[in-house]
Design goal:
365 residues, alpha/beta, Aspartate Aminotransferase, domain 2, Aspartate Aminotransferase, domain 1, 2 domains, seven-stranded mixed sheet, three-stranded antiparallel sheet, globular, binds pyridoxal-5'-phosphate
């Protein structure tokens, strides 16, 4: 059966660890000898409560989440949080947004429905860098400062945590959550949709400092009100139970693999393997993102010169497909190629891609 599986470089929904899928398969029809599928279990059952409890504890262990932070598991994806964050945190004030790519730009657009949003520097004409912190125009009175740690479409990732001088920092970590250790205490709120790095679509993790809970606007839908959800252990209504189960399996897998520190090491290794080839290819392969801001998760590149050669890129994708390497096409807004190297992607699998890149370059340069 494994022979039919390809190497999936998709940006999300993305590759899951094989052992997680196999366990889910074994348990599909008969979960824990109960004679029903996990999908058919009540969200109020003792078994499901155990799954939630263990998942949250595993996440706390993996990221050393301090006790004064609550964890919520909510529906609506990252996009749901584009609205939930301002509805819960703006408190009638303003917020500062650091826009480094298309996801943070979308977050601004949504947040503007709820209050005054300040972007901390003029709009970039291309999303290929992170402007120096010195150039940011931060408002010390802002309700929060928002940024996206890894821009999935543009391949731009923060190599540092922004300094906000006490203003709560809000971060979209959808596509690099648990890919390296982080100091949670620097953040007011972190959220991440599961389908990039920690599971399948349907569930979003929100880690929020206690003092930021309880300030939602009156119009906030009850399922997005952090206070209501904290009070109900994220079970105000029926949550996507199966997505939570899969995420829990991924957390157990992450613990076995060596946790966030190990994922950080592996992410550096895997992304360097690809960037090294790009850097040494004399622009046969190119990446427009400044070196210091290049994503370890989503490597964007062009083939056949700095502006790319669409003919060659098509050929590249076709040959990859034949070799069992799929979903390497770049986002339509950026073009070219994108290799997503999330936690479930192994070094040997990346090696297969880099071997192919060298071979392709030797034939077409
Ligand atoms: C995918 C993604 C989103 C949107 O997630 P949805 O679950 O589709 O709403 C938001 N932010 C980032 C960084 C993403 O990668």
């Amino acid at each position: 059966m494994n022979g039919q599986r390809v190497i999936n470089f998709a940006a999300g929904p993305a590759k899951l660890p094989l052992s997680v899928l196999e366990q889910a398969q074994r348990e599909m029809l008969n979960y824990n000898n109960m004679g029903v599928s996990m999908m058919e279990l009540s969200h109020r059952s003792a078994e499901f409560s155990k799954i939630v409890h263990e998942s949250l504890q595993d996440m706390r262990d993996l990221l050393q989440i301090p006790d004064n932070y609550k964890i919520l598991l909510l529906p609506g994806g990252g996009t749901g949080q584009f609205s939930a964050v301002p509805m819960n945190l703006l408190r009638g004030g303003t917020a500062d947004y650091i826009v480094t790519g298309s996801w943070s730009a979308k977050a601004v657009k949504e947040a503007e429905k709820y209050g005054k949003i300040n972007t901390v520097y003029p709009k970039l004409d291309k999303y290929t860098k992170i402007p120096s912190q010195k150039s940011w125009n931060l408002n010390p009175e802002a309700s929060y400062v928002y940024y996206c740690d890894n821009e999935t479409v543009n391949g731009v990732e923060f190599p540092f945590v922004p300094e906000t001088n006490g203003v709560p920092l809000v971060c979209d970590m959808s596509s690099n959550f648990l890919s390296r250790p982080i100091d949670i205490s620097k953040f007011g709120l972190i959220y991440a949709g599961a389908q990039k790095n920690i599971g399948c679509a349907g569930i979003t993790v929100i880690i929020v400092r206690e003092d930021l809970i309880g300030h939602a606007v009156r119009e906030c839908p009850v399922i997005f009100d952090y206070k209501v959800q904290v009070g109900n252990n994220s079970l105000y209504n029926t949550p996507p139970t199966y997505s939570i189960y899969i995420m829990g399996l991924v957390f157990k897998w992450l613990k076995e693999q060596g946790g966030a520190a190990k994922m950080g090491e592996l992410s550096d290794t895997k992304s360097s393997m690809v960037y090294d080839i790009i850097n040494n290819s004399n622009d046969f392969y190119s990446c427009a993102v400044e070196e210091s801001a290049r994503s370890r998760m989503n490597v964007v590149m062009r083939v056949g010169g700095k502006d790319g050669n669409e003919e060659l890129e098509k050929k590249f994708l076709e040959e990859c497909q034949k070799l069992g390497m799929v979903s390497l096409k770049g986002h339509r807004s950026v073009g070219g190629l994108r290799a997503s190297l999330y936690n479930a992607m192994s070094v040997p699998e990346v090696n297969k891609l880099t071997d192919f890149m060298l071979d392709f370059m030797a034939r077409y340069r």
